[in-house]
Known about the structure:
The chain has 282 residues and is mainly α. It is built from twelve helices and two strands. Strands 1-2 form a two-stranded antiparallel ribbon.
Amino acid sequence: MNGPIPSLLERMRDVRVYGVIAIAIAVLAALDASLAWFTPSLLLTAAHRPANPMALSSFLFASPGGVDAVPAAVILFYFGRDLEKKFGALAFLGIYLLCALGGAAVGLFVPGTPMGGGPAGAIGALVVYAYLWPLNRVRIFNILTIGPRELLLIMVGYRFLWRFGMGGMGGPGGASGLAVLGGAAGGALICAVLSHTSAGSQYRRTLRTAMVGDAASWSSLDWDAIPRDGLHSLTVEELDRVRAKAAQQGIRALTDEERAFVHRLRLRTGASDPESAGVTQA
């Protein structure tokens, strides 16, 4: 007989985080609208202390603007599936929470307004989706087919202008308009990390190092160690020009083409040296 804990863990593998978050956002918005005593958004006092400590467990999934919960839940339900499939449940949850925190933190600039991260988390996830699959198109409610970029423009542009610009900064609408920008900034930060750690980015860095050398080799560059014997006069002239430029403007001023030129001469030097090339003479 199987124990209850392994059985529970097996069932939890089938749980989709994107669906749970979407449902949580919708349920919290419904309870907020129907129960006068229930406030899932975080309210801060003048001393920046929680006026409703219970909201610390729900504000990252709350929608201060109320109606913002609907598009946020739709975005997570239809676009979150592919993100969770690519990154896994925990990583997807981390992406959402980071963007939600960024959106909620923006609420600090609008004192006296409720702080919630539901719409911001959804917008951040949509930014990451648009970065990974910009040409994908998703059919929503089996009625509307739209791509992530178009939906992102609608959500950030319309919601920001209407809820913040035209609607003013006061009230939940203003905070919501700013929060989507915080969520988008969090998504952009994640995209920057993905770009830096991607296989393509690593390949480009490796290729550049092979062509121009690494930073350590340039910090210890000895121009006099490059032999001129056997070099064409034009090559020597170009070497002198690059050396003079580096002396006047610094190594950082050299272009990749100039660095590659010097690096090839340095490799040629190493190859011409039997000991550095690992060749022994009889």
